[in-house]
Structure formats: C-alpha cells, structure tokens
Write a structure and sequence with these properties.
The complex is a heterodimer of chains A (695) and B (136).
Chain A lengths: L15 H12 L7 H11 L3 H20 L12 H11 L7 H4 L7 H10 L1 H11 L1 H11 L6 H4 L11 H23 L1 H19 L1 H8 L8 H104 L3 E6 L4 E4 L1 H7 L11 H4 L2 E3 L12 H6 L4 E10 L2 E13 L5 E10 L1 H38 L7 H32 L6 E4 L1 H16 L5 E5 L8 E4 H17 L5 E8 L3 E8 L6 H4 L25 H11 L4 E7 L3 E9 L23
Parallel strand pairs in A: 8-10
Antiparallel strand pairs in A: 1-2, 1-6, 3-4, 4-5, 5-6, 7-9, 10-11, 11-13, 12-13
Helix pairs in contact in A: 1-3, 2-3, 6-10, 7-8, 7-10, 10-11, 11-12, 17-18, 18-22, 19-20, 20-22
Chain B lengths: L6 E5 L3 H13 L3 E5 L2 H11 L3 E5 L7 H10 L8 E5 L5 H9 L3 E4 L5 H14 L10
Parallel strand pairs in B: 1-2, 1-3, 3-4, 4-5
Classes of the chains: A alpha+beta (695), B alpha/beta (136).
C-alpha cells in the first residue's frame, strides 16, 4: 500500500495540498493503475519546497483526470471534473493553497482570468524589467481603458463576479497583443516569441493541454501557429467526425424511413393486387352472365319475331275480312283522311257517287258527286255535307240530299261521323250513304194515303149525311110517313157514326205514324171547357142531363198544349160521360197541381166495375172482357186510347180517378203549365201499360 | 131574306158535294153558281162577281190553294170572302189557306148542310174572320 511519505496521524499538520492529494488517491481503488503518478509524486517530494509545489499541480490534475475518466470499481465514485473540483473546494481549505494551485478551484471565468494572468506573467516581468513599471502601466491603461480586469492585471486580486468569459478572453487578447508587439518592436520578434513559448510550455507542463489550449486563444494570430493548427486540426477532426457521425445517423434514419415507406407501399400494393384479383374474378363472372343473357335474348327475339309474323297475318286476314264486310253491307261507305283526301270507298259508294270519287281531291268533291237539295236544282252546300262536318269532328245526318247518277235522281240519307284518336284529334271522316228513294216514295205515298183515304172516305159519307139532313130539314111533308121518316133518320145517323169511325181510324193511324204535328201554345183551359160544354149541350139535352162547369174563382194559369187536340180530348170525355149516364149529369172541375193543371170530368152514370178498369185506355177495349160482349152502339172503343195518345204527346197524363158501379165515374187528365224540353213529336207507340188509377 | 139575291160561287170538282151544297144554298134562297175546277172557278168569279166563294182544296189541275192565290192577286176578285172546303185528314193546308187570305175553313164531313149555311150567313153579315171551327 502506498503511503504518503509525510503521512502521519492527524495531529501532524499536513500541507493542504497534500491532504487533497491524499483524498484523491484514496478515491482510487486500484492504486497500481496510478503507480506512475505516485512514483512521480514520491520523487517530487525529494525536491525543494518551491519545486515540490510546482510538481503537486500536475499530479493533482492527473489524479483528477484519472478519477473523472474512470468508472466505479476502478475508482470509488464517478465524478465529473466540475463535481470533483467543487467537492474539493468544499471539503478542504482552498485558501491555504498556493496561488498557483488555488485558482483551479475557482469558478469560471475567474479561473480563466487567473490562468491568463499567469500565462502573461513573464511578459509583464520582461517589460517591467526592461522598460519600467510606468511604461507597463501606461501600456495596460491604453489597451484596456475601461476594462474590469485592469486592476486585476495591475496587481489586484479581486475580480467582478459577473465577468463574461467572452469579454474576458477578448480583453486579454488585446492585452497580450499589445504587450507582445511592444516587446517585438523594441526587442525583436524572436525575443517576444521565446517568452511566449516558454510560458506556454510552462502552462502545458503544469496544467495540462486543456489549459494550454485556452491560453492559445489570447495569443496573436501568428504566434504559436503550429500548436494552434494541431489543436484546430484536432478540433476540426472532432467536428468532422461529429458531423460525419451526424450525417451517418441522418442517413441511417432516412434509410430506415425509406425502408418503412417501402414496406408500407408494398403492403398497399399487395392489398391492391388482392382487390384486382377480386375484380378480375367478378368481371369474368359478369362476362359469363352477359353471354348467357345474350343467348336468351336471341331466343326471345326469334320467338317475338315469330309472334309478330303470326299477328301480322292475323291482322291482314282480319283487315281483309273487315273490308269484305264493308264491301258487302248494302250502303255506301266513304272515308276521307284528316287532310280531306279520299281514303276509301266501298263498291256501293263508288256505284252511287261515281268511281272518280276515290281519286278526287277534296275541293271538287261536291261537284263530282253532284249532290242537290231534294226536289231542287240547288247544289248541296259543301259545309252541310255530313262528310265535311265529320272532318271538323261533328256527327250529322241529312235525308234531303239527291244525287244525280246517270241522269237519275237518287234520294240519299247521309250520315257522317269522325274517327278520332284518344286525344280527340280527327283521324278520318266516314260517311254512309243509304239509298232512300224507295223509302221516300213510300213515305210520300203514306202521306198521300192518309190524305186520299180520308178524302175518299169522307166525301161519300158527307154526301149521305148532308142529303139525309136536308131531306129531314126541307122535305118534312114528303117524309110524313113515320117509317119513312125513321129510315131517313137511321141513314143519317149511320152516316154520322161512319164518319166518326173513319175519323178515329185516321187519327189513330196518324198518331201511331207520327204524322200528327202538335201546335203547342199557351191558352186558357176554362175557355175551352166552356166552349165544349156549350156544344155538347145538344146531346145532353134530349137525355135530360146537365153539364156543369165548376169554374174556379181564382185566376187559372194558362196551359201549354195543342188547343184543338185538347178540345178533342175534352169532347171525347164529356161525350163518353153523357153516353154512359142515364140520370143526373156531368160536372167538370179544374185543379191546380205543382207544374200541371188537372181537368176532372165526373158523371153520375153506370160506373165501371173494378176488374174492367185496367182495360180502359187500351185499343178497342170497352172495359169488357169478351170480344163479343161489346157495346158497339156506343163507340168503336178507340176514343180513350186516342185521347191517351194525344194527352201523352202533349206531356200530360190521363187516368180514371175513381169509379163505382151505378154511382158514376170520374176521369181526369193533366196538362203542363210550361213547355217541357222534349224532342220533336215522336210516334207514340201504343204500349200495353197499366193506366194509373188514382183513388 | 135579302131583297137582292146574293150570288154564291161554289168551286168543287166532286159532283156529289157540288150538288149537295147547291141544294142547301138554294133552299136557303141564295143564287148559286158552280164551277167544276179552278180555271172555271176563276173565270166565273170574275164574271159573276159573287158575294162569297166556297172553294174546295183538293181539285185536279189546280188545287184550291193555288186558286186562292190567284183570286187574291186579281183586283176584281181579291175582296170577295173565300171559305175553304176540305175533307182532308190534316188541317195544315186549311190553316195555310187562312194565312193566304181565306176567311174560314170548313171540314165538310163535320157539319150538317144547314150549319154550313148558317156559317155563310154569319160571314156575309159580319164579314169577319171566324174562330177556327172545332173538330169533334
């Protein structure tokens, strides 16, 4: 075990420096590693105190360096330089150390200030010795007029605590520069350099290269360049290595990032690949489906085409059939297209209107098929032609057209109607032409028949009636004979009866044929009734019957009907009443209903048994069930039926209001107060409907 | 009875009817002139200047309506009252005659000759257009 030569027990006073060193040594576990240092130390102790002090410094610094650069187990504890210095400063009496030792434990930048001062010591000394103290002070003052280190440099020991290391270094540089050049100028560059070099070596030897490097910083540029270069180089190398290392690290990081990105990208591409695969499969499937559909479509198309062919044939056949129908029907069919040009004419139409019709343009149509107004030479106006009305969308019918066909006039009934599409636009105009010449002739002859029939029948009857009447009136003497008189009377009566029958037949026929036109107008019913009562008094009187008209007190509204026909009906009803009454008489009343007037004719005659009442208003019925059981003396049995037809044609109603055997009957009819919107008088069909019996 | 005999013209083609009316008016004291057709009637109307003309509608060659028109055009005859005689079924023609200027129309079969004579008397007395005769 090494022992400090001077090391004794505590009661022997040691140099502070030795204490420190002792402490430092104790920090090293494996002292064999610092054997060299300790050997030097032992050797140093043989020196004189002055030199010994000097030797302590490097030793101290070496120890510190060793401790701070080695790890525990080699050393007791790990310290940084700063920490170790601070520890020593704390535990030992720094102030007892030699100056050249002491400053090492001071804080930076005070430490550096002391170092620099030490470094420049010999330079100061030289100038002091060769040029005097004053000169040196002047130099210092002029170089550092305001500097904080001025006093320190000139011998003081105090320094301001807030000294800045950069400023300090700069000031010392200036100072060094000044001093060096002073010496260099006065005593030669070599002298100056020698001093500097010597100092430098001293610092290097004593304190180490770290501190030596610091001193280089305050030297003028050209001094000790080689040393600087070495350091610089070392520094540059370090920097370069550091930079290179940094670059390397950067490159490595970049490479890693790239590698990561590449990996990611590969993953993405792999995913996309998978997607692509899926899409490919799907597309293949679709293509397959498409193909299947195509095949299906082809099949269907073929099937549809076949159907179309079949349907077309059907339609062609149907069309052919329809045209056959059109050709066969016994009237002319003529069709114009919407433009007015002939589209089709069946054979009848062509016969009737001429073959040229199918080729004619619409304008000349009426000229070509020469249509005239019946019984005239006036050309039928074009706009009234049903076929042209049809082009405008109007359905119409005329029966007063005559067509000149080979010098013969043919009366036609023409009906025109449009064929429209579902929007109402006219597509075609179609007209039918029916030859009605025969019908017209028949109609005319029927009209003539009625005229002639009535005339021809009535004339001889009138003769019989008139002559017998005149015999009875003007030849009373000649027919004094009772039988003769009676015979003439019977002849007269017969003629009247016959005339009545003929009238009834004619009326009935004409009513049923619709040949009777009704001249409807407003008139007073009371007036009519009074007139008829007056005229029928002649028949009533011989039978001692009364005819009473119970005229209402209030004003009666006029009725709307054919006056003459109403007279006919009233006469018929009153006449019937008189016929079937032996005692009493006939009473006529008028009642006002909502929209009608009611005329009541009440008699006190024999009445009508219930089971016969239904038969009343029928043709030839006389309210008796058997054909043979007829009272033909009284009438033909047509009177009520004719009255019914007449009344109904005038929008009224006729009915048996009440009847009781041996008590009498009440007949009634209504007439409207206002015209009812009806068509032109139609032939009233005699229908076997029950008459309305109002109780 | 009128002092001066009144002349009546009867235009009627049917001899049965002609004879009948001739008798009644004679019995009633009129002077009766007969014509067998329209042409004859027009001549006689101008020549005899009757007080009244009885005119049948249905006649050959010229019917009663045509004769009426001609009578009403001729200044010599247009003032003579004309009574139409008819046995036709419909009364349209007769009514038409009224609008042409006839005073009345009579349906022959409906009246006794005496009634016809009375009607004529009334017309001659009043010379007014009567109401439409009733049909019964």
């Amino acid at each position: 075990m090494f022992q400090l030569p001077v090391l004794k027990k505590k009661d022997i006073k040691l140099e502070e420096s030795e204490k420190i060193i002792s402490f430092l040594v104790s920090q090293v576990n494996n002292q064999s590693l610092i054997k060299n240092i300790l050997t030097d130390f032992q050797n140093a102790h043989k020196l004189n105190p002055q030199d010994k002090k000097q030797a302590d410094i490097p030793l101290l610094l070496q120890l510190i360096n060793f401790i701070t650069t080695n790890e525990p187990l080699v050393v007791k504890e790990k310290f940084s330089q700063r920490e170790l210095f601070a520890l020593i400063a704390k535990n030992f009496k720094i102030q007892d150390l030699d100056d050249s030792f002491k400053f090492l434990f001071l804080e930076s930048p005070i430490k550096e200030a002391h170092l620099f001062k030490f470094f420049l010591k010999d330079l100061f000394q030289f100038i002091r010795e060769n040029e005097g103290e004053d000169h040196l002070n002047n130099l210092i003052n002029s170089t550092l007029p305001d500097s904080l280190i001025k006093e320190f440099v000139q011998g003081g020991t105090e320094l301001a605590p807030n000294l800045d290391i950069t400023k300090l270094t700069k000031d010392f540089s200036l100072l060094c520069f000044s001093l060096y050049h002073q010496v260099s100028n006065q005593f030669g560059e070599k002298t100056a350099q020698t001093i500097i070099v010597k100092n430098y070596q001293k610092v290097k030897g004593t304190y180490g290269t770290e501190y030596a490097k610091l001193c280089l910083e305050i030297l003028p540029h050209e001094v000790l360049q080689e040393e600087k270069v070495i350091f610089l180089s070392k520094e540059q190398l370090l920097a370069k290595v550091k930079a290179a290392t940094e670059v390397e690290i950067e490159k490595r990081t970049l490479a890693e990032n790239l590698a990561r990105e590449v990996t990611e990208k590969i993953q993405v591409i792999e995913r996309q690949n998978q997607e692509l695969e899926k899409t490919k499969i799907a597309t293949l499937n679709l293509l397959e489906d498409e193909k299947t559909l195509e095949v299906q479509l082809e099949k269907e198309k073929a099937s549809v085409e076949q159907k179309v062919i079949e349907k077309t044939q059907e339609l062609v056949d149907e069309k052919g059939l329809l045209f056959k129908f059109l050709e066969t029907i016994p009237f002319g069919v003529f069709v114009l297209s919407a433009s007015g040009n002939p589209y089709y004419a069946n054979s009848h139409a062509r016969e009737l209107l001429g073959n040229a019709i199918i080729e004619t343009a619409s304008d000349s149509l009426s000229k070509v098929h020469k249509a005239y107004i019946s019984t005239t030479d006036v050309l039928y106006p074009k706009e009234k032609l049903p076929i042209f009305q049809a082009l405008s969308g109007i359905t119409s019918s005329v029966s007063d057209m005559e067509i000149l066909n080979n010098d013969k006039r043919i009366t036609v009934e023409v009906t025109g109607s449009p064929i429209k599409d579902h929007d109402g636009k006219v597509l075609y105009a179609i007209a039918t032409y029916t030859d009605i010449t025969e019908r017209k002739i028949a109609e005319r002859s029927k009209d003539e028949f009625f005229s002639i029939a009535s005339h021809e029948l009535r004339t001889p009857l009138t003769s019989i009636r008139g002559n017998t009447s005149m015999i009875l009136d003007y030849f009373k003497e000649a027919i004094k004979d009772k039988d003769l008189h009676e015979m003439i009377d019977d002849i007269h009566e017969s003629s009247i009866r016959l005339i009545s029958i003929v009238n009834d037949f004619l009326d009935l026929s004409r009513l049923e044929q619709g040949k009777i036109s009704f001249q409807n107008d407003y008139f007073s019913i009371a007036q009519i009734i009074e007139k008829v009562c007056e005229e029928t008094k002649n028949i009533a009187l011989p039978k001692n019957l009364y005819i009473k008209f119970e005229k209402p007190v209030a004003n009666m509204p006029p009725v709307y009907a054919d006056k003459n026909r109403v007279i006919q009906v009233v006469t018929n009803l009153i006449g019937n009443s008189i016929k079937y009454t032996d005692n009493g008489g006939v009473t006529i009343r008028v009642n006002i209903l909502d929209n009608d007037l009611e005329v009541e004719i009440k008699d006190t005659g024999r009445g009508i048994p219930a089971q016969n009442q239904d038969l009343l208003f029928r043709k030839f019925q006389q309210a008796s069930s058997s054909l043979l059981t007829r009272d033909t003396v009284k009438s033909t049995g047509l009177g009520l039926f004719i009255s019914k037809l007449l009344i109904e044609n005038m929008n009224g109603k006729i009915y048996l209001k009440s009847s009781a055997e041996n008590q009498g009957s009440t007949f009634a009819f209504t007439l409207p107060l206002n015209p009812i919107s009806t068509k032109a008088p139609q032939p009233v069909i005699a229908s076997r409907t029950k008459t309305s019996i109002m109780k | 009875m009128a002092t001066a005999p009144v002349i009546l013209l009867i235009v009627e083609d049917d001899p049965l009817m002609s004879r009948m009316y001739q008798k009644i008016f004679s019995f009633e004291g009129y002077n009766v002139v007969t014509a067998i057709d329209g042409q004859d009637g027009l001549e006689k109307a101008t020549k005899e200047k009757p007080s009244l003309i009885l005119l049948d509608i249905m006649m050959p060659k010229m019917n009663g309506l045509e004769v009426l028109d001609k009578l009403k055009v001729n200044p010599d005859t247009k003032t003579i009252p004309v009574v139409m005689l008819t046995n036709l079924a419909g009364t349209q023609d007769a009514e038409h005659a009224l609008s042409k200027g006839a005073v009345k129309y009579i349906i022959k079969s409906e009246h006794e000759p005496k009634q016809v004579a009375n009607m004529v008397k009334e017309i001659l007395q009043g010379y007014t257009r009567d109401a439409v005769p009733t049909t019964s």
